[in-house]
Every structure is written in structure tokens, then in C-alpha cells.
């Protein structure tokens, strides 16, 4: 007889879909509670009512409740997991373990009901899974350079809290390296929905690098809700695309030679791993999980002053051998099988 699990989320991103597939592969019947992030009072109330009803129906029959990200949507399912004596887990991805004062960003930036509730969630949940170890104790480099407070333990006094590092995993068969494609260009991707994301993801630095390399095409992927060129005077060699499907992203990764991740804060960025699997050489800032992803397969930079060094790296004649090395690093460290095994160990 199949066991039941409940997964709770606000947006059904690729990593949520992946975990649903993992649970199903582990022979679980998966119940889903989705609370879309709408900002009207009525939608907020409706979400909480739906969470209560579905928690009664689903959590009571489940062995475990897994919640992607800490926020309002986590509170009621956690309460019912305590009531029904079920194991509960919050998966922390980044936003729910940082405060970036400069960009007024992070779940704990403002003191109020939301941040108080989030702290209660951390105190009540059975376990916390962080996608990278820096989200437990914090990233000292981000603190020193950007004054970013980070790490779950920075926001809770519960020293008995069980925190495990369970990295996200990737389907190495889907994200493949097509050696027949001639790779050229540099790309970066995110959900660029407001000016804060532009600042957080280092898009201005990306544009500065494009200025230094006017003969190389640069591509920004993920413009949504805003026009990026209203905030940045983009160089002529920078092309901007909207949000893409997974298949379209794979084609872009396969086409571009380099992937740029200039973030000031992150968890374990999916796009870097996906791009490296598709043979992109990574260029990244030295924060949170980015150095662990890149290792010695690309280049890490400290700030804008390093861009000449990055430019020289791009022009240094990197080829197929380097692309294979980047792909092999992700296969060895972040294959989906590793996440499956760790989740199995934690829930069985």
C-alpha cells in the first residue's frame, strides 16, 4: 500500500515538480497544497481557508509534509502536522534566510506579522532542509562585502533545530551538452520582475562586461513585468528575452559558451547548474553556493574591478575540454540521484 506525502508551495517551479516526481518514484502518493502569491486581502483569506481544509484532508493522511520556502503558506500545514503528529519539513532556498537592507529584500527584512510567523514556523517544524550549507550558518563573504545577514540560525534562537543540507538535483539526461553546436556568447537568466532583482542578480555588472567585449553577443533571459532597458542603458550587443520554457532554456544554454551569475545573494542557483550541464563555462560571484558549484571549472570574481580579468578569461581560447569539465562537475556533485537518496534517507 502506498504511503502519502503532502507538498506545499506557492508557485509550481521546476524544483517543486522535481520533488513531486522524486516522492512518486519513492512510491508515495503526493497531495499538493498550492497558495498562489496574490496580494489582495480576499485572496489572502481564501488561501488560508484552502490551506486549512486541505491540511485536514491531506496532512492527516500523510507520513510527511514538505514545504517549499518559509512564508505564510507554511504556517497552517505545520500547525496541522503538529496536531496530527506528522513529520514536517521546510526547504529553504535563499529568500527565506537572508536580509539585504540595501535592496530591502528578504523574508526577515521587515519586522511584523510575516517575519514573526516565519520565526514561529522555524521553531515548530520537525526539520529544515537547506539547498546549500551557507543558508544554515550564513555566508560570511556576503556579510563582509554587502552587509547581507544570512542563515536560518541568524533568525531563530532554537539551537535544537535540525538542519540538513540537501542540495537540489538535476536531470543530466535532459540538460545535455550538444557538441555539434558551435557555442558563442554569454548569457544570464533570472525572473527579472523589478529593479531589486536587477540589482540582486548583478545585471549592471553583466552589462559592463558586455561593454568590454563589444564583438561578443550577450543575452539576458527572463524579463517579466518590467522593461530592463528602463533601468539600465544596455549596450548594443546585449539582447533581452522574456521568460522561456525548459526546452527553450536548454537550447539557449547549448548555444552560449559562457554563463554569468553575478548575484550578491543566492542559495544554490539552478540556472548555473543547468547551464554547466549544457556545456557553458561558468562565471560567478563569490557568494553562497556559487563557488561550490563552479569549483575550478570557470572563474569567480570579487567585484567590478575584476571584469578585465573576466574579459581576458573569455578571450583565452576555452574549448570543448573545458565545457566537458563543467558538465562533469555538476554530474558528480548534483545529479538528481543524490537528492533522491538524501530525501529517501530523511523520510523513510
What does this structure look like?
- The protein has 348 residues and is an alpha/beta fold.
- It has two domains: 3-166, Rossmann fold, CATH 3.40.50; 186-334, Rossmann fold.
- It has helices at residues 14-25, 41-58, 72-83, 113-124, 134-137, 140-146, 195-200, 203-212, 246-255, 270-277, 290-294, 307-314, 320-334, 336-347; strands spanning 3-9, 28-34, 64-68, 87-92, 98-99, 127-130, 149-150, 163-165, 186-192, 218-223, 238-242, 258-261, 281-285, 299-301.
- The chain has a six-stranded parallel beta sheet with strand order 2-1-3-4-6-8, with helices on both faces. Strands 11-10-9-12-13-14 form a six-stranded parallel beta sheet, sandwiched between helices.
- Strand 1 (3-9), helix 1 (14-25) and strand 2 (28-34) form a beta-alpha-beta unit.
- The radius of gyration is 20 Å and the shape is globular.
- The two termini are 15 Å apart.
Cross-sheet strand order for the largest sheet: 2-1-3-4-6-8
Integer average pLDDT: 95
Please tell me what the overall shape is.
globular
Percentage beta strand = 15-25%
**Helical element count?**
14
CATH topology of the largest domain: Rossmann fold
CATH class of the largest domain: Alpha Beta
Compute the number of strand runs: 14
Helix content: 25-40%
Distance between the termini: 15 Å
What structural class do helix, strand and pairing data support? alpha/beta
Rg over C-alpha atoms, rounded to the nearest angstrom: 20 Å
Order of helices and strands: EHEHEHEEHEHHEEEHHEEHEHEHEHHH
Largest sheet: 6 strands, parallel
Quickly give the CATH architecture of the largest domain.
3-Layer(aba) Sandwich
Low-pLDDT segments: none
Domain module tally:
2
Amino acid at each position: 500500500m502506498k504511503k502519502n506525502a503532502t507538498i506545499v508551495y506557492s508557485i509550481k517551479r521546476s524544483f517543486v515538480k522535481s520533488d513531486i516526481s522524486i516522492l512518486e518514484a519513492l512510491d508515495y502518493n503526493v497531495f499538493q497544497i498550492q497558495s498562489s502569491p496574490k496580494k489582495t486581502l480576499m485572496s489572502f483569506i481564501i488561501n488560508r481557508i484552502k490551506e486549512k481544509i486541505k491540511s485536514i484532508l491531506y496532512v492527516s493522511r500523510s507520513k510527511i509534509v514538505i514545504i517549499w520556502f518559509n512564508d505564510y503558506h507554511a504556517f497552517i500545514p505545520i500547525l496541522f502536522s503538529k496536531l496530527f503528529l506528522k513529520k514536517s519539513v521546510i526547504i529553504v532556498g535563499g529568500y527565506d534566510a537572508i536580509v539585504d537592507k540595501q535592496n530591502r529584500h528578504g523574508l526577515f527584512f521587515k519586522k511584523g506579522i510575516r517575519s514573526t510567523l516565519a520565526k514561529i514556523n522555524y521553531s515548530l517544524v520537525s526539520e529544515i532542509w537547506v539547498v546549500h550549507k551557507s543558508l544554515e550558518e550564513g555566508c560570511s563573504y556576503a556579510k563582509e562585502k554587502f552587509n547581507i545577514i544570512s542563515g536560518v540560525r541568524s533568525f531563530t534562537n532554537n539551537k535544537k533545530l535540525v538542519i540538513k543540507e540537501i542540495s537540489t538535483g538535476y536531470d543530466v539526461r535532459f540538460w545535455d551538452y550538444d557538441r555539434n553546436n558551435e557555442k558563442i556568447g554569454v548569457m544570464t537568466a533570472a525572473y527579472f520582475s523589478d529593479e531589486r532583482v536587477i540589482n540582486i542578480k548583478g545585471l549592471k555588472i553583466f552589462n559592463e562586461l558586455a561593454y568590454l567585449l563589444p564583438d561578443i553577443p550577450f543575452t539576458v533571459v527572463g524579463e517579466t513585468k518590467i522593461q530592463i532597458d528602463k533601468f539600465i542603458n544596455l549596450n548594443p550587443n546585449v539582447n533581452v528575452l522574456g521568460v522561456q520554457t525548459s526546452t527553450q532554456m536548454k537550447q539557449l544554454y547549448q548555444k552560449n559558451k559562457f554563463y554569468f551569475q553575478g548575484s550578491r545573494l543566492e542559495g544554490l542557483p539552478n540556472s548555473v547548474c543547468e547551464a554547466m550541464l549544457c556545456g557553458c563555462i561558468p562565471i560567478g560571484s563569490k557568494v553562497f553556493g556559487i563557488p561550490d558549484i563552479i569549483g575550478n571549472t570557470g572563474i569567480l570574481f570579487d567585484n567590478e574591478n575584476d571584469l578585465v580579468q573576466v574579459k581576458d578569461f573569455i578571450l583565452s581560447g576555452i574549448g570543448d575540454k573545458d565545457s566537458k569539465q563543467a558538465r562533469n562537475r555538476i554530474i558528480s556533485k548534483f545529479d538528481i540521484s543524490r537528492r533522491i537518496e538524501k530525501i529517501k534517507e530523511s523520510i523513510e
